[in-house]
């Protein structure tokens, strides 16, 4: 059914326990999950909202691929309900979340929610479902999943950083980014927090994300995957996705060398960490449909 060719997940902080990405291959399910890095200052989730969301969705996906799945794994909307329900349950059953006010609190405080994106291949449906801005490629053809709001804030961040460069006395340090702070990231942080208001809404800046409050009729992009097709599922930690892991890693390294602050990449709301040399948690799963 699903013949895994290669798979890898790497956390940006070097500690697997802090990796907000993950992947699942179970029965007729293959998926990549990308927990959203929290912009919250409430300190509710331990170790982070992204890790909590990644763990919850990966566990739910494992059950979907089991002999006794909680719903029909070929039914996209049923799968959406199960995955979103896992996060909603955290608001009631996680001790810190319940103490914060449970579902009622998170309904009115979207920036404090545990969130994740996912791309799911269901063998029973013969489809790939793009729940958010994770990536997919079929037979070498990738689809663009960068959100409109990320393009906007990425452009604003680039504008701020380049304006600081023009004003900087030490232009060499600013151009390389080595050890330099990111004034652009700081400038857009309030907007990144405001962005959560658009989660699971329609319109120009609306976007889908699993957060316990998804719209059950939200349009989900789907791709067909037939027997013999080669499929890549990945998180957005690979901003230049390629048909193989080696090629994707090489493209990422090229970006690190030529544009370490990610000023010229669509949706680049942050750059490489100048100390670790990393950009984001990243997950890559390549398989052949049988």
UniProtKB/TrEMBL annotation:
Q: What is this protein called?
A: Protein phosphatase 2C domain-containing protein
User: What is the species listed in this Swiss-Prot or TrEMBL entry?
Assistant: Bifidobacterium longum
């Amino acid at each position: 059914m699903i013949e895994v060719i290669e798979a890898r997940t790497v956390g940006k902080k070097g500690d697997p326990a802090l990796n907000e990405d993950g992947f699942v291959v179970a029965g007729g399910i293959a998926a990549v999950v990308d927990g959203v890095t929290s912009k919250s200052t409430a300190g509710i989730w331990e170790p982070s909202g992204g890790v909590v969301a990644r763990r919850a969705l990966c566990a739910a996906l494992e059950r979907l691929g089991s002999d006794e799945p909680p719903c029909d794994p070929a039914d996209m909307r049923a799968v959406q309900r199960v995955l979103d329900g896992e996060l909603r349950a955290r608001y009631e059953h996680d001790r810190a979340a319940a103490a914060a006010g449970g579902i009622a609190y998170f309904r009115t405080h979207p920036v404090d929610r545990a969130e994740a994106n996912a791309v799911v291949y269901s063998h029973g449906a013969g489809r790939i479902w793009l729940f958010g801005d994770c990536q997919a490629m079929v037979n070498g053809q990738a689809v663009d999943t960068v959100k409109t709001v990320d393009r906007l804030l990425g452009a604003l961040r680039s504008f701020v950083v380049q304006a600081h460069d023009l004003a900087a006395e030490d232009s060499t340090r600013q151009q390389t980014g080595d050890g330099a702070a990111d004034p652009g990231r700081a400038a857009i942080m309030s907007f990144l927090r405001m962005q959560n208001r658009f989660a699971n809404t329609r319109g120009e800046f609306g976007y889908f994300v699993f957060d316990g409050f998804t719209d059950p009729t939200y349009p989900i992009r789907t791709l067909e995957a037939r027997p013999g097709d080669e499929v890549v599922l990945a998180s957005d930690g690979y901003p230049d996705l390629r048909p193989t892991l080696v090629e994707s890693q090489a493209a990422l390294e090229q970006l690190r060398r030529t544009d370490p602050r990610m000023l010229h990449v669509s949706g680049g709301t942050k750059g490489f960490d100048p100390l670790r040399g990393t950009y984001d948690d990243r997950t890559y799963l390549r398989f052949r449909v049988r």
